[in-house]
Amino acid sequence: MRLLYPAVTVHAVVLLAAVSGCGSDDSSGGGGGGDSYDVTANDSACELESSSIPSGKATFKVDNQGSDVTEVYVYGKDGDEFTKIMGEVENIGPGTSQDFSVDLAAGDYEVACKPGMTGDGIRSVLTVTGDDETVEDDEALYDREVELVVEDDGTLAPVTDASSKGTVGEKIEFKLANGTTTEHYLVLLNPSGGEVAKAEAAPDDEAEFVAELTDTGDYTIQVYAGDAENQASEQVFSVSS
Question: pLDDT for 52-66, tens place per residue?
């Protein structure tokens, strides 16, 4: 992950603590401790050592036995859907392992392994039991992802309607996949035109940042190559109350 010039303005907050958990061995932001559980990821399965664990801090030890780079997420429920990102680890190469820790209250969750680091992933159900008073609430790292792709011609690929809208208070990870041979920048501007955050994606790599949306109106997602900021490809991201 490459983060450049994260900014805090009166319109939005860039959540650096959440972003720093990506690809690390502790997505909860704290130290070690708690029980550990193996997660075996491959190209077609996401196998949990245990599908039921006690509440509190859990460390997931991910072994990527697949042929592609992968990432693993723990999702909590938001309404009827498992979309709240409780913890994650990214960029696990084939034949390698990484750990991450998450504080989980009692409830139902899903663990998703994502070969190629895209899409909804291969999901397994996880039940957390008990009543650990040290876990006050299911505080998500962020609420959802918006995945963006740079086309071969350097333009931003069209996004779905759901990926171009948000609501005030949402914490969203904006992720750019750059499959071109040139570095590209991902920028989020607030409704007043001020820069909220900026990330650099190297050739054939990804970059992301997390932002909390605190104003209604049209934010702007920009993607451009090198220093060609005046030739940015743009996508409107509308935020409502």
Answer: 999 999 999 999 999
